[in-house]
């Protein structure tokens, strides 16, 4: 009786509050658009640590303060500001209560008389209430603040009364409409809605927005991963067909188990009993075979996806510029190529497999449960929200606890590494007891965290078990009453309980796999980041002339490494390397000699000036053609596991043994190659560790000479060569008009050069200038002569 009067008072208040709220929403949106913040950000109280002086929030607080009554004189400015904040928090809730009261007043009048009686009218009333509140909050600009409160507030009562109707003995209680309910019922509905909203907010914070964004990103990654599996669509379709067949076979087994019980308790029919046993065996064997085929198809698809992803990732990595490898650790790349690609492929074979199987199983089981007893099937849904809530609460705490355990284990491992690595220092200071104490404290922290983890796990399992037993007792009670009423057989109840047992397991698996699927697919984020990464260096050109002279021109070339753009390495270099001449490039460490060699190989792009090869920019040449014509030999050459021949002909599609041996003779490597047990087919081991340093340099020089390059770069490449090998190299350089750039400090190499260039701090110094000024070059020559 009091509700119409309260609604009558609320109606004018709602009409008066709505224009003001709309105007406030427009002001907040306009202010937010100018400040670059979301419109609803001004309607909430700044959390701790936020700047309360952000644009929009201070203005909103001032507007709220202007509309409210001034605080008493005894109130401090801080208290007044806090009261203003609380008023802004309560405003959406007050608006929601006013709007709900007005809608209930409308539903109690003529509109309520048009609704059908019973549960359909109750659900229709809740739907109208939900739609009306949603529209009013959207118009008022407050939907984002209290929108999550609407479903439990409007649909909680119909859901409760519908579930109550499933309990035997409660059918006589007629459903009550909310609009005509007493105040106690209405207050209970508001309390339940607020409690559910508070639980949802508790489970959603902190970091709900970040997790939502992460889930959206993981969803995008999941679809990209499915696109990578598109070539395996026939195998996936076959796996899904076997999955359906296996699930159907497993689902029929409990049904025939209950059927056998009914046969044994009634008039025994041998034919019916034999038929039931036959079908049980048939479905058992068939489902097992289909399950095995399903697993085989998913595993085969996993291996194909794994190979495909690894190939794509490795190809993408080899196309990256050198600055990427300087900024990225080798261990990280190795982890992406091995661990993450394996997780990506397992996601399809394990996560998607289990998810689809659980989903199909839940649908099939629930279909059979509905066919046996619709009331018991709906009653079994009471367990789902409890299980999901418990799973979510436990998962949040468990993940946080696992992070603490990882940090504690890392700290314990750090104590061990530091103590063992610095054992001499530990003993020098007599700190063995201190290190033992630190390790004991770290292990004690790990033990406490392990104990907490096991305790929370036990409590979670205890809660799940209690919920399961409670549901079993409730359904047994309801099932017995249905048996007495003749609506259900004893075998049907047994089948239903077996289905409910399996369904509870598969629902939990489904909930767990949905979250785990999105979490595990996050391992693909870094892989896709590498796949999508575009090299900073421009793509190579297409120039590949049939003949090349080998004229190299540096025209005011400057360069700074990408990770250190403010530290130039080369500054305005201008010089020419001519065919038929050998140029020696000397200078102290860090002067930029190796950088010049890297630019000449087009490993980096000059940040200024031009680098020309036969009058054309070096970046315009085709990649493979350029590196056949311009080759380099480093001071510490890199060899790959394989035979001697494979290392000399590395990178060449077709190369005869005669050409390989000719290059080996030119590098004076044929002598020790013939002494090897298998000659050219001898394995050099990982990184060439089966060979001596001088032998590895000879093979590296032969690998460069087999290409017959027009430009040869020797970066301290003769430091480990004997006299015969170096003389053979000098003989090769004297034949043909080849351009040779030598980076060396040996006097013999410098003396045999046609041109000597000296670098100092990235700048080129002239020969005459250096000799006359007694500068770096003169000191270098003097040092070489003394040596």
CATH topology of the largest domain: ABC transporter transmembrane region fold
Count of individual domains: 4
What is the CA-atom radius of gyration, in angstroms? 40 Å
Strand elements, count: 10
What structural class results from the helix and strand content?
alpha/beta
Counting H and I runs of at least 4 residues, what is the number of helices? 29
End-to-end separation in angstroms reads 112 Å
Major sheet description: 6 strands, mixed
Spatial order of strands in the largest sheet: 6-7-8-3-9-10
Kindly estimate the percentage of residues that lie in beta strands according to DSSP: 5-15%
Shape, per Cα inertia axes: elongated
Quaternary? single chain
Architecture (CATH level 2) name of the largest domain: Up-down Bundle
Main location: endoplasmic reticulum
EC number: 7.4.2.14
Domain ABC transporter: 552-786
Cofactor: Mg(2+)
Walkthrough of the structure:
The radius of gyration is 40 Å and the shape is elongated. It has helices at residues 2-35, 57-67, 77-108, 110-113, 118-140, 143-146, 150-166, 183-204, 208-228, 233-265, 270-318, 322-327, 330-372, 374-379, 383-421, 423-428, 432-484, 490-520, 524-532, 593-600, 623-629, 644-648, 657-666, 670-675, 693-705, 723-734, 747-751, 767-772, 776-786, and strands spanning 552-559, 570-577, 582-586, 608-613, 616-617, 630-633, 711-715, 739-743, 755-760, 763-765. With 787 residues, it is an alpha/beta fold. It folds into four domains: 2-204, no CATH class; 207-373 and 488-536, ABC transporter transmembrane region fold; 379-483; 552-640 and 699-786, Rossmann fold, CATH 3.40.50. Helices cover 67% and strands 7% of the residues. It is a multi-pass membrane protein. It is found in: Endoplasmic reticulum membrane. Keywords: Adaptive immunity, ATP-binding, Endoplasmic reticulum, Immunity, Magnesium, Membrane, Metal-binding, Nucleotide-binding, Peptide transport, Protein transport, Translocase, Transmembrane, Transmembrane helix, Transport.
């Amino acid at each position: 009786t009091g509700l119409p009067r309260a609604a009558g008072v609320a109606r004018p208040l709602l009409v008066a509050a709505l224009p003001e709220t709309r105007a406030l929403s427009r002001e907040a949106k306009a202010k937010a658009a100018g400040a670059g913040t979301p419109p609803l950000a001004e309607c909430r109280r700044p959390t701790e640590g936020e700047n309360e002086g952000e644009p929009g929030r201070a203005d909103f607080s001032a507007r709220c303060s202007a509309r409210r009554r001034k605080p008493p004189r005894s109130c401090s400015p801080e208290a007044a500001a806090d009261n203003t904040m609380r008023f802004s928090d309560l405003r959406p809730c007050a608006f929601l209560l006013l709007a709900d009261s007005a809608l209930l007043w409308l539903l109690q009048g003529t509109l309520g008389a048009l609704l059908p009686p019973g549960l359909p009218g109750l659900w229709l009333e809740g739907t109208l209430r939900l739609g009306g509140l949603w529209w009013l909050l959207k118009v008022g600009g407050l939907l984002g603040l209290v929108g999550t409160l609407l479903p439990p507030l409007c649909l909680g009562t119909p859901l409760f009364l519908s579930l109550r109707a499933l309990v035997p003995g409660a059918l006589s209680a007629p459903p009550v409409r909310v609009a005509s309910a007493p105040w106690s019922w209405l207050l209970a509905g508001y309390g339940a809605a607020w409690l559910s909203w508070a639980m949802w907010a508790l489970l959603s914070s902190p970091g709900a927005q970040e997790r939502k964004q992460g889930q959206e990103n993981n969803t995008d990654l999941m679809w990209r991963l499915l696109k990578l599996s598109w070539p395996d669509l026939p195998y996936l379709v076959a796996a899904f067909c076997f999955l359906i067949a296996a699930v159907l076979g497993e689902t029929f087994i409990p049904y025939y188990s209950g059927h056998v019980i009914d046969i044994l308790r009634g008039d025994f029919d041998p034919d019916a009993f034999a038929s039931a046993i036959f079908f049980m065996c048939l479905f058992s064997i068939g489902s097992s075979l289909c399950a095995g085929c399903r697993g085989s198809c998913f595993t085969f698809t996993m291996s194909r996806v794994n190979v495909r992803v690894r190939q794509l990732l490795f190809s993408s990595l080899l196309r990256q510029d050198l600055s990427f490898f300087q900024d990225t650790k080798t261990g990280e790349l190795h982890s992406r190529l091995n661990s993450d690609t394996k997780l990506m492929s397992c996601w399809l074979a394990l996560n998607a497999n289990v998810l689809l199987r659980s989903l199909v199983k839940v649908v099939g089981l629930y279909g059979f449960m509905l066919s046996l007893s619709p009331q018991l099937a709906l009653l079994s849904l009471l367990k789902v929200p409890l299980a999901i809530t418990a799973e979510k609460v436990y998962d949040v705490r468990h993940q946080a606890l696992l992070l603490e355990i990882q940090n504690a284990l890392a700290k314990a491992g750090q104590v061990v590494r530091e103590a063992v690595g610095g054992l001499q220092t530990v003993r020098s200071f007599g700190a063995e007891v201190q290190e033992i104490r630190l390790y004991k404290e770290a292990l004690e922290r790990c033990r406490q965290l392990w104990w907490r983890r096991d305790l929370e796990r036990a409590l979670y399992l205890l809660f799940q078990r209690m919920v399961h037993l409670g549901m079993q007792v409730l359904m047994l009670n309801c099932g017995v009453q249905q048996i007495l009423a003749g609506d259900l057989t004893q075998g049907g109840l047994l089948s239903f309980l077996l289905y409910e047992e399996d369904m509870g397991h598969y629902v939990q698996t489904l909930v767990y796999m949905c979250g785990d699927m999105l979490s595990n697919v996050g391992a693909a984020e870094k892989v896709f980041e590498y796949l999508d990464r575009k090299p900073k260096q421009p793509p190579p050109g297409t120039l590949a002339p049939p003949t090349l002279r080998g004229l190299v021109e540096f025209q005011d070339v400057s360069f700074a490494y990408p990770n250190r753009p403010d530290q130039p390495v080369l500054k305005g270099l201008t010089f020419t390397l001519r065919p038929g001449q050998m140029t020696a490039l000397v200078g102290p460490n860090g002067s930029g000699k190796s950088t010049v060699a890297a630019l000449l190989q087009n490993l980096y792009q000059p940040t200024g000036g031009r680098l020309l090869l036969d009058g054309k920019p070096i970046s315009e040449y085709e990649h493979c053609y350029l590196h056949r014509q311009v080759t380099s030999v480093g001071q510490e050459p890199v060899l790959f596991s394989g035979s001697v021949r494979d290392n000399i002909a590395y990178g060449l599609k077709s190369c005869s043994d005669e050409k390989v041996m000719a290059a080996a003779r030119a590098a004076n490597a044929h002598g020790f190659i013939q002494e090897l047990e298998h000659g050219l087919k001898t394995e050099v081991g990982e990184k060439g560790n089966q060979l001596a340093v001088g032998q590895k340099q000879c093979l590296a020089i032969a690998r460069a000479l087999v290409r017959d390059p027009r430009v040869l770069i020797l970066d301290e490449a003769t430091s480990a060569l004997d006299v015969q090998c170096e003389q053979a190299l000098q003989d090769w350089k004297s034949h043909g008009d080849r351009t040779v750039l030598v980076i060396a400090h040996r006097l013999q190499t410098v003396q045999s050069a046609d041109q000597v260039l000296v670098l100092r701090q990235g700048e080129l110094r002239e020969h005459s200038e250096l000799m006359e000024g007694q500068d770096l070059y003169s000191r270098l020559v003097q040092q070489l002569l003394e040596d």
